[in-house]
Amino acid sequence: MKIAVCAKQIPDPANEVTYSNGTIERPEEQVLDDTDRYGIEVALQLKEKFDAEVTIISMGPSGTQKGLQQALQMGADKAVFVDDESLEGANSLMTANVLSELAKSLSADIVIFGTESTDGYSGTVPQQVSRYLDLECISYVKAVEINDNVTLTRQTVEGSEKLNMPEKCVISVTAGGVEPRYPNFKDIMAAKSKPIEQVSISDLTINTTQNLEFIDIETVENSKSGEKITDEGEAYQEIVNKLKELKVI
Amino acid sequence: MKTLIIGEIINNNLSSGTLEILGKAKSLDLDVQVVTVGSDENPSIGVDLCKQTYLKRQNNSLNLSKAATKISEIIKNEEINLILGSSTYMCRDLISFLSVDLNSSPVSNVIDFDVSSGNVSTVNSINGGESLYKTKINSDQALLLIRPKAFDPVEVNFNDDFETIDLDGSDLEVFDIFIEEKSGPQLEDSKVVISAGRGMVDKENLELIETLASKLNAAIGGTRAIVDAGWMPYSQQVGQTGKTVKPDVYIACGISGATQHQVGMKDSKFVIAINKDEEAPIFQLADLGIVGDTLSVIPKLNDNI
Ligand SMILES: Cc1cc2nc3c(=O)[nH]c(=O)nc-3n(C[C@H](O)[C@H](O)[C@H](O)COP(=O)(O)OP(=O)(O)OC[C@H]3O[C@@H](n4cnc5c(N)ncnc54)[C@H](O)[C@@H]3O)c2cc1C
Predict the structure, then answer these.
(1) Predicted complex ipTM
(2) Can you tell me which atom of ligand 1 is nearest the CA of B240?
(3) For the residues of B142-204, what is the DSSP string, one character each?
């Protein structure tokens, strides 16, 4: 079984996001998007049961490759990435186009994603990749049971439903679906010698265009000048009064 | 502009998200039709305002990709230029599939859009709602995923006047379909919402919230932190990756107020926040902020209401 898992390098979420010309500014050192840890965890659990090969696929400025290293530290076998100036500010479809080409080049049977990236969160890339690959997409997986076959539980509007994982498909895993493992010192050292390979965009078939033109970004002023009261035992009374005033009680 | 709305069914009628988009499309005078995807037996989803087509799927197989193929066909045959859907699980899947078929990248998290001289422009919320991002769409077809509560719903009379197209199932069998029991007031349409965060300290303390909610006839929500911790089902998560609520009163109990949470509740009319950290960002959104311990304030509230 060959598994490709998407891992995105993003600016450290502890810092404020900044934009230049409508595109997120990316420092040299980016980290692994936590959302992807869930997908990687599922891939590794499959690997433990079925002897699979797990390859990280990634697109975007590679910089110090810290985020890719973090993905390898969790236990993936190798990483392939595309980093090309022409992809700066790529829309979701272009991103999916590139990632599906990477998955194809690896002859991946199963392609796994988080449900949306922390920095861009368009939340469409896994489904788009499945369409490019002409595979079914099992989206919003929130539980995985691995026995002789693999049962996936999907989140739906009304509740949930289960499916048996087919031999080939695309999966997106919701945050909280599984418990991502923490690498130990040995894992961290082992990751250093794992292969990371850059793929040239000219080796891929890309036929998407930038159909979305950036116009402007505006910051939203959210703050209200409400009352703030420190509770010294009686502050509940303020709430009761307010609820009466608002005719809730 | 020829417009297609992907409709969804809730309680045998069109979902509020669908009606909100229809309201906006009507206000822009778009030439609109609805194509609804669902598995209900006999829904009442015909609307007096425009054409309705029902793509009926079998709920025992995952066949959304087949639904998308059918919608692609309709879009091509009828030369549709604008495709709209709500940011729900189903529409996210469908619009993503369509974007590949039409080779047009979609815009997600749209909170407003406009059509002028044949061009579609959008405003979408980024960075957990901290900023608004404006885009002009330069492809023949524009695909938008719209956040719930962005627009006012249209008033409609439902009827049974629509065409039904039965979709084939796929090889992917679905089983153990679980429908979460929905009792009490629902998040989307409740006038009062009480949400809990990690500042409720322990899952057991959610009883306090339940008591308060029953006294105020309120729906209960929560942050992703407590949903991830298993204190509450995902269907109750409020925020960027959960539900968007717009009640008259929102009571945030032990919630820090991360931007991803704010985006799901900041349009509430009156916000009350209880948090022991006076610097908590939630206070920036609060009309009434109580700096205090949830476990001391809420029991007293319960005793006095
Ligand atoms: C891509 C992405 C999507 C996300 N989507 C969502 C989403 O949809 N919804 C969402 O909610 N979050 C979402 N998050 C997570 C979000 O960033 C926050 O981590 C989360 O909202 C924090 O939840 P919290 O307020 O319960 O916990 P914390 O941030 O830990 O805050 C707990 C608060 O409780 C207070 N407190 C502690 N004890 C007490 C006490 N005894 N009395 C009073 N106050 C107390 C503390 O001062 C603190 O402010 C998302 C994150 C990412 C990256």
Answers:
(1) 0.95
(2) 8
(3) EEEEE-TTSSPPPP--EES--EEEEPP--S-BEEEEEE----SS-GGG-SEEEEE-GGG-SGG
